[in-house]
Design goal:
Length: 100
């Protein structure tokens, strides 16, 4: 699994029929210190994440299982919206502090 920040949405009117109704998010990866990495990922959203939220993504066959159908052509899925991240007893990220 990987930490990421929601940067936007990806909209496609023409797509595989198994992806109808699946929200796609544009994510920027984050390291354990909360620093933005230069890597991006498009992931299916299974938890209703919003812009600027920190999320946890799963990749590969685990991502397909999250959506309940292994036939969907998905490489990554958002599986959690993060509330807090602690590294060595230090708060790196707190969702409630982000919007103050």
């Amino acid at each position: 699994m990987q930490l990421a920040k929601v940067r936007g949405t990806v909209v496609s009117t023409q797509k595989d029929p198994s992806l109808r109704g699946v929200k796609l998010l544009l994510l920027q990866l984050i390291n354990e210190e909360g620093q933005i990495l230069p890597e991006y990922e498009v992931a299916a959203d299974s938890v209703g994440a919003g812009f600027d939220e920190w999320v946890l993504i799963s990749r590969g066959s685990a991502a397909r299982q999250v959506l309940g159908n292994e036939q969907r052509p998905v490489d990554a899925a958002v599986v959690a919206i993060i509330d807090t991240v602690y590294v060595e007893d230090r708060l790196v990220y707190g969702k409630k502090d982000q919007y103050r």
